[in-house]
Each structure stands twice: as structure tokens, then as C-alpha cells.
Amino acid sequence: MANKLISEIGLPKSISNIFAARNIKTAKDALSLTEFELMELLDVELSQVKSAVAQISAIVSPPYQTQIKFLVLQQQVKLLIIDSMAAVVSGENDQGAPRQHSLGWHISFIKSLAEFSRIPVLVTNQVRSQSYNEVCQYSFQVQRNDETQEEPEKYDSHLIAALGIHWAHAVTVRLVLEAKLGQRYIKVAKSPISPPMSFPFNITASGIALLDDDGTELRGKEINSIQCQGLSQGLIHN
């Protein structure tokens, strides 16, 4: 159903012609974009985009997607937490390895849901081990692998986010929880409004308590490396 042609869905001819003119031919093409991206691309009002997306979704989307959107509005949800995305995606693959096309569908739906309901969506990810020479570098981390390898400092634990670079680029704000020498830190590894920063924190009865409001700016491999030193019971515990 995802490959069903827009022209066969029964949209008003005026809006259907605009989809065709912008080379958005199938339901998958339309639903892979957020409503704001469609509004900008089609150059029409948001209300028209919402109406078209709703009609397309009603015909081709699985019932659970429509039900999730309905429940978010009905229950007046203010924050949606998905724990854990890596487990959800890996569970769809018999081999246990996340498939990028499956992940792409999840990303599109989560972004669409966030814009549809105007709420933040918090998604947790797992970590996996990686050798020192394979430390992950992303385009938003301004350092090359050869520069990283020249640095004498090495970490005791080499962990990276489980879902890889596709997920790293998809998220708007990326927070990393780690531990160094028994102290917990929360890192702002990616943000449209902040440089990479690290803040020490403690877990208290009332929640997370930052120990330093100014934080420390991060550079190079520190941005995306994940350490776990000195907390045998995990990062978050009482």
C-alpha cells in the first residue's frame, strides 16, 4: 500500500496535481516527509497539507499508526518516551541487526507524530562496544580519524550508540549519559542551538541534579565516545 499512487487516492485534483508537479508520486513519498516539509515543498497552506496527509494515511497507513495518533490526542499526552528504539528495530530482524530501511520508516513516523501532536518525543538508544580504531566519527564532529588516532589518550571503555550514523543524523538533540571515574556526566552531543557540552550530575530523590551549570565544551572524539568507568551498577541508580 505504501507504493500506492497519489493520483489513485482520491485527493482533490488541485492538490493531487501539485503533488505530481513536485514529483511526489506515491504514498510513501508523501508520508516520508513531515507536514512542514510538505508545506514548504508544495507551497500550500498547512491546513491543506494536514488534510491531504490524513487522507493518504487513512488509506495506506497501518491501523496502529492511526491509533497511536488518536490516543496521543485523546489522552492529551505532553511527552512521549520510546524505550528502547534499538530493541524495537532489532526485533523486526531475524538476525537482530537493525535494518536501515526499517529504521527510516520509524524515524519518519516519529517525526510526523511529534509535529502532528506538537509534543517532544524522547527516544532512548542502546550502546554497543567498538574497538579503539573503529571509534565512530560523524559529519557534525569536526575531526578526522587520523587526527583522533594521533592522540595518545585512550579510554578504558569504547562504546558507541547502537543504531549508527543514520539515527545519529536523524535526531534533533542527542544526549549521552556516561560515567568517568565514578562521576556521572550528561553530554549534549548534538544540538541546533548549543555546542557539544558535558555536565556532571547526580541522581537524587527529586531527579537529576546538575553539579555545574556552565559545563565543559567538548572537542574531537569526546563528542561521540561513550565511557562507563567506576559505576558497576550502571549510570542511573539510587
TrEMBL record:
Gene3D superfamilies per record: P-loop containing nucleotide triphosphate hydrolases
Keyword vocabulary terms for this entry: DNA damage, DNA recombination, DNA-binding, Nucleus
Domain of life of the source: Eukaryota
The UniProt record lists the keyword Zinc: no
UniProt GO molecular function: DNA binding
Residue ranges occupied by any XRCC3/RAD51 homolog 2 helix-hairpin-helix domain in the UniProt entry: 6-59
Protein's UniProt name: Uncharacterized protein
Originating organism: Ricinus communis
